[in-house]
Input
Amino acid sequence: MGSSSLLQQTTELLQELVRNAAVNEGTPESGHEHRQVRTLQRFFEGSGLDPVVVEPHPGRQSLIVRIEGTDPSAPSLALVGHTDVVPVEPAGWERDPFAAEIVDGVLWGRGAIDMLNLTAAYAVVTRAVALGAPGTARFRPRGDLVFAAVADEENGSRFGVGWLTEHRPDLIDVDYVLTESGGAPAGPLPSIGVMVGEKGGAGRSLRVHGAPGHGSAPWGARNASVIAAEAVSRIARFRGPTVITPQWREYAGALGLDADTAAALVDPDRFFEALPATGGLQGFAHASTHTTISPNVVRAGEKINVIPGEATVQLDIRVLPGVGPDEVEGYLREALGDLIEHIEIEGDWFGESSLSPTSTALFDVLRGAVRRAYPRAELLPMLGIGGTDGRFFRRRGIPAYGFGVLSETWDYGKFRTLFHGNNERIDLESLRLTVEALDQVVREFLGGDASGERRLASITEESS
Ligand SMILES: [Zn+2]
Output
């Protein structure tokens, strides 16, 4: 089973996972991850593995496989891939988002980069370990290898890793985790992004109080829609403090920009002046250095001839390390200014940011695997600006990295655009680089029985 075969298996599995259209619309009835689990159960048939399936809510299945290592004291590793995808707006797509067509070496479809590509590669690598590779040595990991194909990551993981963490932690009990998302090259070396942490989140709503009245006499009315619109505008204009994290400092330094621009990007007083120079990375650069507040859901009014007395605005807030609920409240009050007299801030949900150390044995193994594809590459530890299942592990002190290896056609700007965007796709070269790197990481980190390997290898040589 050579590496081309790993690619072929990954491609075929990815196509099936895309075609299953496990779209998570944010409702308990959506997701349909049971289709993905069925596909994976068939995939693991005959491998000798016995996957466990959990179903916290009808249809919301996750599948977990554990290959026990030979040495209970050796560190264990989990490959955690979500199987749900976000909805599409088909009108914006050039191809059918759920057909998984391959055109000129590129596979198109929802989930191709977020993150069915990785979930497929994890499954292929896990099965390869279980089967051993015909014609080569059988690899027996010293530490446990866990593959978890999990539901509901795209809506907070309540039916996925969140549920497993609470109800079946035994299934995902490991020392290290790999998950989404990383692998985009940056700068000349290049530097390959590895997500070592991510921002935290807070959900808040603004309840806007006006006074109801007749739509025929708007002059002087306290129209909740109008107040809400002004609140949304103020929040959109609000800047908040610019914070240079160690990860952003490293990222800005790796971009290969001229010295002055690079210096300005890590200077809170000059950041906005240099921001346009980051081109397609502007949104990412801004979010990497700011606690962001995005007013995403606005509701007001019921009837065309009635001035609404109430409105609500839901805010998606992503916090930098060190920012707590009090700071969030402070930013909102500062942004809203005197409008606060018409507004109540509701909600108290808060999840703090999470960060894994890079001084681990696994991180070194990741670097080695990346250098097979890019011999001069450095790893670029990044702080993710969105959420992943990695946070559930990091918060329990388990290092979790977002890892992959993408081809030279990628940069982080393209990566961000295709995430949840139109025309999501991945080139097969990136799929190959990723599955080969993961295969190497698993074999090296879980350290096989070397003497057995040599013995088997010599037997194979004799017999061939
Ligand atoms: Zn994802």
